[in-house]
Amino acid sequence: VDVPLLHVDLPQSSGHTVQPLEADRTVRIGHHAGPDFALLALVAPEELRPPSALAVRATIKLGRDVEIKRDSTVQVRASGEAVIDVGESTRVSGQIRLGRGRLELQGRQFVIERGVIDFAGPDPSDPLVMASAYWDAPDATRVHIDFSGRVSSGKLTLRSEPALSQDEILALMLFGSPDGSFGAQLQN
Predict the structure, then answer these.
(1) Alpha-carbon span 81 to 95, nearest angstrom
(2) Which end of the chain has fewer CB atoms within 10 angstroms, the N or the C?
(3) Which pTM was predicted?
(4) Higher-confidence residue: 12 or 145?
């Protein structure tokens, strides 16, 4: 599948999964049969059917004009190729490259410099990610964020120009100044 041009506008809110709950002994499942309530016997699910011999292989090639956008919080260009194999299990291989874009974090607009999503490994939902972005603070400090590793366990690194400690970078991002004060001080 060649995708030379694609512009995706994501909805503002994403779906949430259903919270798993333990069985409630006070809940009865059944139906009304006249004046009586007939309980339904809860049985184990049927055996899953054996996997079919049919295998599907899809190669998706993203062209130069593929963009993913979500209001003002995300805008990123993507290119690359992914191969999806569906058979007894699902495997994904290939790389998606992220071009320049922007990402809003904590109300700060970060510029995405580059990124690579590499579908290497057994779990397609946990790819390797290498990405870099920066934010220019009002005091002219440039804060860099680098992410490397699997989505589930990667490492986030903060650095800045001029060099600040990790605490000062966090204070700058959260409060607007490296010392943690909220903007300008009041004069007496």
Answers:
(1) 6
(2) C
(3) 0.69
(4) 145
